[in-house]
Amino acid sequence: MKKLVLIDGHALVHRAFHALPPTLSSPKGVPTNAVFGFTAVLLKMIKDIKPDYIAATFDLAAPTFRHEEFAEYKAHREKAPDELHAQTPLIKEILMAFGIPIYEKPGFEADDLIGSLAERSKEDKDIQTIIMTGDLDTLQLVDGDKVVVFTLRKGVTDTVIYDENEVFKRYGLKPEQLNDFKGLKGDPSDNIPGVPGVGEKTAAALIQKFKTLEFLYEEISNLETLISKQSQNTNLKKNKIQIKPPLSEKLIQKLLENKDMAFFSKKLATIIRDVDIDFSLDKADWLKNLNRTEIEKLFKELGLYSLIKRLDEISIFSQGQMVLPETVKTETSAGVKELRKKKDVAGAFNEIKEAREFSFNLSSEFFDFCVEKRCFSAVWPMIVEDKDLFKTAKDIFEGDGVFKIGHDLKGSAKLLLSFGIELGRAGFDTKLAAYLLNSDRKDYSLEKIYFDEFQESISQNTREVPVFVGKLKERQSERLKKEKLEWLFENIEAPTARILAEMELRGILIDSKAIARLSKLVAVEISGLEKDIYKLAGTEFNINSPKQLKEVLFGPAPTGLNLKGKVRKTAKGALSTAAGELEKLVDEHPVIEKILRYREVQKLKTTYIDPFPSLISKTTGRLHTTFNQTGTTTGRLASQDPNLQNIPIRTELGQEFRKAFIASPGYKLVSFDYSQLELRIAAHISQDEKMMAAFRRGEDIHTRTAAEIFGVKPEMVDKNMRRDAKVMNFGILYGMGILGFQRASGVSRERAREFIDKYLKEFSGIARYMDDMKMKARKDGYVSTVFGRRRWFPEIRSSMPQIVSQAERMAINMPIQGTAADLVKLAMIKAFEYTHNSGKQDKVFLLLQVHDELLFEVKENSVKNIADKIKDIMENVYKLDVPLVVDVKSGHNWAEMDELKI
Fold first, then answer.
1. Residue 341 · residue 433 · CB < 8 Å
2. 160-198 b/e with 16+ CB inside 10 Å = b?
3. Are 220 and 257 in contact (CB under 8 A)?
4. Which is it for the CA torsion 38, 40, 45, 50, positive or negative?
5. What is the structure's pLDDT at 72?
6. In terms of C-beta density within 10 A (0-12 exposed, 13-18 middle, 19 or more buried), how is residue 601 classed?
7. pTM of the predicted model over 0.90
8. Who contacts 347 (Cβ-Cβ below 8 Å, separation ≥6)?
9. In which element (H, E) is residue 712 found?
10. Residue 872, H or E segment
């Protein structure tokens, strides 16, 4: 049986728009949340159902016959936002690119067109009709297995197909009874009134018993007649008429009073099935008219890159049922020569040395490479095991005389290090180049980057990776030069990758026994906290469930504590149980403090303590985290397995956890932490005179800030004043506004406004910098760091104020945070060069980089001398207009460290 899919375009567009965040936008700032959601559902439907025919229907803006008969029909609905309207034409463009015809007709809704097309399709015994929609209005059209409904449960990925059985499971009714059901219950979403006081359960029970609205009113009419006769006949009064559920005298009265409205509501809810439409299956034969070139062009223009990848995951798009455009290549013309003899490998190595440049892809099994236009594939273990070949390979990789081109050179460097080969400086990493050119990417795979650059799909043959890497390098080199990113690429990002490879391979020693002890202590504390919380709350519940916690804290007695503190509401209107909101209620009830402590301990346990044993190498006893160099938009490093960037620092448990990070025997851990790095950079970039002067004098910046704002001498600043100043100093770097400062400081809204106004007046350079960055982002589309790193903000041109505000906040922060990231990387590079060039490789190892801190492992007898030198390197790595200050500590574990006086 062939499949015809009828798309309820109007319902799906609205569902997608409200299901996905409004922050999704195209590179030009056009909102795309509805476009993405609609298209994602379309692709899922094509993948799951594999339709032979597809047609789409949409509502027109003009009134329908229902509006003419009932002026209040859908009148309560708010006007759809402009951001939704702007996306409907884009969705229609995508449908046309898919070869899907669109049907609209004045006076009728999309549902009426679907009903008419579905009715017509029943005439063909070889056609099954699937209605694809975002709501349940069309369930009344379900008919055996001839007509079913494909719709959404949650979001835009959780779908369900309704046949007659599924309809019955949901309502206890047959599809054809749903109009009768709505005649009684009404439909608030369409402003269909129904019978006042009749809800879903009562309406369902009535139709289940009486089958239709007509039979229901026939029964009521009979009862009414009998009741009337009974009241007039004294003999009948003795045997009072029994009214059986679900009917009752009160309900009968309501039904009789609203009989006309019930039948009118049923009429409004009934989908028309005989609209005259010029339709044929030939027009709906979408595969004949599908244009993949146009689809991919639209997806790229709208920034829907992840959807391009989904096309290849759908069999219909990869089984020859569509013609690929000429520009898309699925195979490369490169002939890869397999090298299986020593002399052949040696000959190819000579070609590399003569050409002084090659592109490559290395794994533990194969070494694939291209020299000029000749490509080779060698067995890597064969090279490693042959003394002569290994020496040549080592010379090629380590020497700066040969230029090496690859994708993700950190991974290659790490593999080479495991064989005792250090990857030399001269090279080009297409992954890092893509990151510098667009740090907002979510996918840095070679396939994705190559497609975006050339609109060509690459071969799935990994042996041919060097071909694509070489071609990509040529294009990226031009772009890096044009956008003045060459220096940053060559002097910061590329060297950092090689250092990270060494850090990952080295790892940090972990005291497994300390972790085991901490795990037991935490389990005991959690158990005790649970008992305390249940006792204080007066009931047992799932503390980790926001819903249950909300009911316990804010619900009425006796089951709830009925707390009345001022906490904000979530997007769905529920009272928030976020940590920041619960902190406001600490004085309201002792259970709050216990809950906050429980959350802190539970997070540490589940995020770090429990997973830790499985992450420790059984061979080395060390933790080998993975540093992600392309994981943030600002240039900051991220880490995973585990994420060491988020280990609590100031909490007692966080410190206990850090005690498990220990130095190797004969070594000490030495921490070098930049003091207030981002604030110093803010002073430098903004050229704010007061802030620069405070740093030059070595003053406490938060005390100085408080003194300026409150108009007192520094010695008169108390801890509350300093705390508010500190919140402002750091918050302003992230574009914090009045509401943010109010939440963080606990002051009134008016006081928060006064504080920010005073701050921006006293530190006018900061205020000027903030305005300049917003203006630059609007004018140029990007902002940059001191070293030229860029971040683009296409969303700053959005028509949605909240998206623009978010972009402005990020534009203010990025140059500061990004410059801090660049400086820390430069410090890593210079320190690494010092240790390697001075022959101290076995005396000092860089282990971790966490925010503005570098953690080294240093030979105990060399700590003072090496720490002195590294501190000097870090404080002079780049000359700002304010001094850079580094705090140095050392100890046998990461928590218990003593300050080093240098």
1. no
2. eebbbebbeeebebbbebbbbbbbbbbbeebebbbbeeb
3. no
4. positive
5. 64
6. buried
7. no
8. none
9. none
10. helix 863-875
Residues β-bridged to residue 846: 856
Same domain flag for 454 and 524: no
Q: What angle do CA 652, 658, 664 make, to 5 degrees?
A: 150
Q: Residue holding tokens 């015994």? A: 125
The Cα–Cα gap between 739 and 866 comes to 46
Report the distance separating Cα 645 and Cα 661, nearest Å: 14
749 contacts 742 by C-beta, under 8 angstroms: yes
Burial class (CB in 10 A: 0-12, 13-18, 19+), 131: buried
In the three-class reduction of DSSP (H, G, I as helix; E, B as strand; rest coil), residue 835 is classed as helix
Q: Per-block average pLDDT, block size 10, for the chain (902 residues)?
A: 93 88 76 91 91 92 67 60 84 93 88 92 91 89 91 77 91 92 85 84 90 88 67 55 79 86 87 89 90 88 84 66 34 71 96 97 95 94 95 96 97 95 94 94 88 76 90 96 96 97 95 92 94 94 90 86 76 74 86 92 87 89 94 93 81 87 97 97 97 95 92 92 90 82 81 90 94 94 96 82 87 96 98 87 91 96 95 97 97 95 82
Residue 396 dihedral angles phi and psi, to the nearest 5° = -65, -45
pLDDT value of position 327: 32
647 in any annotated domain = no
Q: Which pair of tokens denotes residue 485?
A: 């990113």
Query: 252-280: string of b/e by CB count within 10 Å (b at 16+)?
Result: bebbeebbebbebbbebbbbbbebebebe
The Cα 374–Cα 637 span in angstroms is 37
CB of 167 closer than 8 Å to CB of 139: yes
For residue 141, which of 322, 22, 269 has the smallest C-alpha distance? 269
Q: Say what angle helices 305-312 and 292-301 make with each other, to 10 degrees.
A: 150
Number of other residues whose CB lies within 10 A of the CB of residue 758: 15
Q: For residues 27 and 794, what is the distance between their CA atoms, to the nearest angstrom?
A: 5
- Residue 229's Cβ-count burial label (10 Å; 0-12, 13-18, 19+) is exposed
Query: How many helices and strands in the chain, by DSSP H and E?
Result: 40, 24
pLDDT of residue 188: 79
For 569, which DSSP code? B
Please provide residue 362's backbone torsions phi and psi, each rounded to the nearest 5 degrees: -120, 135
> Could you tell me if 54 and 281 are in contact, meaning their C-beta atoms sit under 8 angstroms apart?
no
Phi, psi values for residue 336, rounded to 5° = -90, 120
263 belongs to a structural domain = no
* Rounded distance between C-alpha atoms, residue 162 and residue 168, angstroms: 9
Pairing, β 661-662 against β 508-510: antiparallel
| Chain centre distance of CA 21 | 10
Closest CA to 507 of 610, 413, 412, 615: 615
Q: Are residues 27 and 157 in the same domain?
A: yes
Which tokens in the block code for residue 720? 């509350």
Tell me what pLDDT residue 876 has.
98
Considering the domain architecture, whether residues 6 and 70 belong to the same structural domain is answered as yes
> In terms of domains, do 280 and 409 share one?
no
Q: What is the DSSP string of 100-126?
A: --EE--TT--HHHHHHHHHHHHTT-TT
What CATH code is carried by the domain that includes residue 459? Answer: 3.30.420.10
- Is 513 within a domain? no
The answer on 159 and 305 residing in a single domain is yes
State the Cα–Cα distance between residues 654 and 657, nearest whole angstrom.
Answer: 5
Question: Long-range contacts of range 451-459, CB-CB < 8 Å, 24 or more positions apart?
Answer: 451/308, 452/300, 452/305, 455/296, 455/300, 455/327, 455/328, 456/327, 456/328, 456/329, 457/312, 457/328, 457/329, 457/330, 458/329, 458/332, 459/330, 459/331, 459/332
360 and 292 housed in the same domain: no
By residue range, what is the domain housing residue 440? 336-507
Q: Are 680 and 698 in contact (CB under 8 A)?
A: no
